[in-house]
Structures are given as structure tokens and as C-alpha cells.
Amino acid sequence: MGLDLEYINHQTALDEDEKEGLLIKSISTRAELDEFEQQNIERAIAWTMKKRFKISDILNEEFVRKLHKKMFDQTWRWAGEYRKTNKNIGVDKFYIGIEIKNLLDDCKFWVENKSFSEDEIAIRFKHRMVHIHPFPNGNGRHSRLIADVLIEQGFGKPVFSWGSGSLAPQCDLRSEYLSALFEADKDNYEPLIKFARK
């Protein structure tokens, strides 16, 4: 039985090769996949809470990939690997590594020079990460978790609330989140910062 997924509300579609990377072959619906991925993500959150990361630990490519791997390693064979196909969002697959390096360098500069508030640094980092869209799936969830790790462990502030509800595609809150992301695309980060602390 193959994996038949419905993509709604700006979800990124997986190609057939990426679907073949599913580790649990009995999963056949979006609901089953969502549930299994959520369990995997909760284990990754527990892992981040048991560890202590400095800003320098977080702002490196190895951590970016390792966090994604921890979030999806029991669901997808390609967890932690950059995508090998182009999507409806994100940079060209050949530029992912370069854009991640640029983002990490920029964020280090923002931190060292206090270019923005700590919340804005973490939100800008999250926004650029999801804009690059480095992985085949899970980019939004990954970018939010890495922002949480940065704000909590890097800056010693509470994790973001991300609107205090579910951002699943069928939820009303997702539209508000996407609207704030689209504003950030126009270099207006205030709505996304407010949403993250709602």
C-alpha cells in the first residue's frame, strides 16, 4: 500500500522517491503520518531539553542537520539530509549548502553586534531557514524548533508560543501564521514576532 498524501494550505509536496524514504510502510494516510511524525518530534524536543547548547553549538550546519535528523529519524530515511529536488518553495537544491552557510554567518553577526532584539534574531533566523527550505519535509516545524532552541538555550529566554495552538494545515491559526510569514517576506518581521509570542 502506497502513501497517499493530500497537500493543503502551503504544504510542500513530496516526490515519489522521497515518499519511498518512509520507514514505516504500514502508514498510508496523512493522519497516520502526522501522528507518527509528532511522536518523533516530541522525542527530539526531549533530546534538546536534556542537552545544553551554546549559541555557537546551535549556529552551525552540523546542528541544523542533526536537529532535523532527531525530529524525523524514525519516520524518514532521509531525515537530516538536504533535499535533492526543487520544490514550490525554497532555494534551488544546488544552493542549499551555500544559503545555510550565509544564514549561519549572518546570524552570528546579528548576535555579536546585537543588530536586533534577541526575539527578532531568532525569528529572522527561523524565517530565513524556512525560506531556504533545506529538507524534503518538516521545514516549518524544524525552523520553529531551532528558533526555540536558540531563544531558550542561546539567549536564556522562554520558548516561543507560536500562536499558542496547532499550526496543522486544517487549523485557522495556520492562516494567521502564514500571513505573518508573508509579511516577513516583505522584511516586516513585527507580525511574526508578535505571533511567536502570542
* Average pLDDT metric: 93
DSSP summary: helix tally: 9
State the domain count. 1
Instruction: Give the C-alpha Rg.
Output: 16 Å
- Assembly status: single chain
| Secondary-structure-derived class | mainly alpha
Give the full name of the CATH homologous superfamily.
Fido-like domain
Briefly summarize what is shown.
The protein has nine helices and no strands. It is mainly alpha-helical and 198 residues long.
Care to describe what's here?
It is built from 9 helices and no strands. It has 198 residues and is mostly helical. The protein has one domain: Fido-like domain (Fic-like fold, Orthogonal Bundle), CATH 1.10.3290. The longest helix is centred in the first third of the chain and has 21 residues. It is globular and about 50 Å long.
Throw out a few tags for this protein:
198 residues; mainly alpha; Fic-like fold; 56% helix
Write the layout of secondary structure elements.
Elements: H1 16-19, H2 30-50, H3 55-58, H4 61-72, H5 96-113, H6 118-132, H7 139-154, H8 172-185, H9 190-196
